[in-house]
Amino acid sequence: MGPNPAASPEVRVAEIIRAAGSWAREAPPALAPAITAVTLRLAEMIADQRHYRVDPGAVGTEADHLDRIAEALRSEAVTRGLAAELEGLAEMELRTTGAWAAVPAAQAEWAAVAVDFLTARALRLTGPDRPDLYWADDVVAGVTASIRAILGVDELHARTEAQFQGMRRGAADQEVEGP
């Protein structure tokens, strides 16, 4: 069962923050702010559907709901206490284009930046607190899966793609049938 589409952006943001906390509990406490920053930034990018929607002028759609979540994730109330981590991440990350939501290569590049960011933070730790080398890969993959499930974007994208395929098929059928 997918996420409740009627849930308010505040509910979704709370779920994302809980997911960040869950992933942070699996790591040394010193890495919790970095994990939270990565989670919030990734969630913001996944939720930002402005460049993916079929009808950019539509109001009240699922994409609009996701855009409101993206806006809420950027708010001071959510990012309080994470400025240094978010700035550090911003220095490393690509300046994503509007194609981020739809272009797998851009998503993979950002995931690599997030892994590098978390790895750099982990390398500051010593002894038994330092996670293994593949820890950051696992966290970024897990956070990505968690966010996509919380937001239900996979279902939205599947419906959007199906709509585009139907539009293309209809145009092709008209050309074959002729006048």
Note down, in words, how this protein is organized.
With 179 residues, the protein is an all-alpha fold. The chain has one domain. Helices cover 68% and strands 0% of the residues. The protein has helices at 9-25, 32-47, 62-73, 76-79, 83-92, 104-123, 135-151, 153-177. The longest helix has 25 residues, at 153-177. It is globular, with a radius of gyration of 19 Å. The termini are far apart. The model is unreliable at 171-179 (pLDDT under 50).
Quick take:
With 179 residues, the chain is mainly alpha-helical. It contains eight helices and no strands.
Residue fraction in strands:
under 5%
Number of strands: 0
> What is the total domain count?
1
End-to-end separation in angstroms reads 45 Å
Main sheet?
Answer: none
How much helicity do the residues have?
A: 55-70%
Question: Number of helical segments?
Answer: 8
Q: What overall geometry do the principal axes of the alpha carbons give?
A: globular
What is the element string, with H for helices and E for strands?
HHHHHHHH
Uncertain runs are 171-179
Radius of gyration: 19 Å
Report the mean per-residue pLDDT as an integer. 79
